[in-house]
Every structure is written in C-alpha cells, then in structure tokens.
Amino acid sequence: VFFNILADVIAENPNDEYKKAKTDHNEFALDITKKCEKKYTNARSRLWRAAFRSILYIFITKSVFVLLFEIPIIKWFGEEVSTLSLAINIGFPALLLFIIVLFSQVPSEANTKKIVVGIEEIIFEEKRKLSPITLRPPVKRGAFMNAMFGIIYSITFFSSFGFVIWALDKIHFNWVSTLIFLFFLAFVSFFSIRIRKIIGELRVIEPKETIFSFLVDFFYMPIVATGKFLSENFSRVNVFIFIMDFIMEAPFKALVEIVEEWAKYVKERREEIV
Q: Is there a contact between 149 and 141 (Cβ–Cβ < 8 Å)?
C-alpha cells in the first residue's frame, strides 16, 4: 500500500513532489493525504458499481433459476409451491449483498495517518524506523489443538446451517427451496467477501474486533467457506457452467452491454449539445 500510494503521488507531478519532499515535508504529507482520500473515494465508487451490477445480476439470475428450475423441481417431487419461499429465494441473496456493501466502510483517518507515517519512514532518513521489523512466524499447533479446533469448527458449521434451516422451516420452506436457499446463501456470502477486498486493499490498520464482530465471524465463516468450496468445485463442472453461463449469464451480459453502450451514446449526445 505504501509504495503504491507513493508511486501515484510522484507520478502526478514528479518535479514538484521531489521539491516538496526536499524542502516542505508538510506539503508532501498533505499530498499523500489527498491521494489517500481520492483513492478511498474511487474504491467506494468501484465497490458500489460492482455491487450494483452484481445485485442486478443475482436478482435476474435467481428469478430465472426459480422459474426454470425451482418451481418444476418442487412440483416434480410433489411438494407445495410457496409464494413466500419463492419471493424470499429471489430477493434475499441480492438484499444480503446490498446490506453487506452498505455497511462496508472505507479506511479511517487513522489509516491515512499510518500511510503518511509509513511513506515518510521509507523516504526520509531522519524518520526511518530504527527498530527491526519483526515477522510473525507461522502458527504451529499440535495434533490435539488441531483436533479440538476441528471439533469446534464442526459444531459451528452445523450450528450456523442448522439455525438457518430451522428459521426457514418456521416460515414453511420445503426441502427443495431450503437447499436452493442455502446454495445461493453460501455463494453470495463468499462473493461478498471477495467484492469487499476492493476497499480492504487500501487498509493498513485492521478494524478493531468487537464481541459482536467476533461472533458474526465465528458463525458466518463456515457459510463463507462453503461458498468458496462450492465456487471452486462447481467451476470444474462443465454442465453447470453451461447452464449458468449460456442460459442465464449470457443474456444478462448482453443486456448489461446494451445498457452501457446506450449510456455512452447518451453521454456523447449530451456533450455535443453542451
């Protein structure tokens, strides 16, 4: 992060930044701060653009999935089609992603100050950190600890999915809708972690962990891990890729391209008029 920010600051005006670094450290630090704030704003915009497209994609894909697969499968197994479960299965994945992105915060002012200090330690001899940098060695655990953590993780895994299944059963989800809900819940949960990395790449200070965040991570990570497992394994199944890409994803990509081209055309026309 330090070197990327420094390179961006220098690239804008190498001569001026060199002079500031030599004669006016405060001005140089101010330029770093401005660059950080600009990158935070750009990252936030990128996050919401990616989120908007993903939410739209998930909503359309899930709607098509419900019509083409979920309803026929439910009827084929002789289960009752529930309008509520179908509506939740269509809307919840997109809503979940929206909520996760909504509560994704850009790095704080303390993060910016840490970047400024880190860059100054790199380029200014008098501010160079004299104390050695200590690298944390990989954590080594014995067989007993690994077994104990494995048991705890298994309990967490079954508790997380068990609670979701129990909640769905309370609102009369049949087993087909429940499986599909869990499938997309895991996928979207994993994808949301990936998309939040857009902001996380600029963070040099980790957010303080509270009891609430610890509990959320403790019970949510098994769902995210399941999403990662499904994503990695289903990517190898050609039939599944064909269904998702050519039947669902390809039409949506075409729609997105048309909308983007139309937006460019409107922008060009506006510039011609102005």
A: yes
Which has the closest alpha carbon to 95: 183, 184, 225, 175?
Answer: 184
- Predicted local distance difference test score (pLDDT) of residue 166: 94
Cα gap 178→220, rounded to integer Å: 18
Q: What's the angle, vertex CA 103, arms to CA 51 and CA 166, rounded to 5?
A: 90
Domain residue limits at 57: 2-129+141-236
211 or 33, higher pLDDT: 33
Q: Assess if residue 255 is contained within a domain.
A: no
Residue 242 lies in a domain: no
254 part of a folded domain:
no
Q: How distant is the alpha carbon of residue 195 from its chain centre?
A: 3
pLDDT of residue 238: 44
As a whole number, the mean pLDDT across the chain is: 78
| Overall number of domains in the chain | 1
Q: Is the pLDDT of residue 122 over 90?
A: no
Asked whether residue 270 is domain-assigned, the answer is: no
The H or E element spanning position 92 is helix 83-102
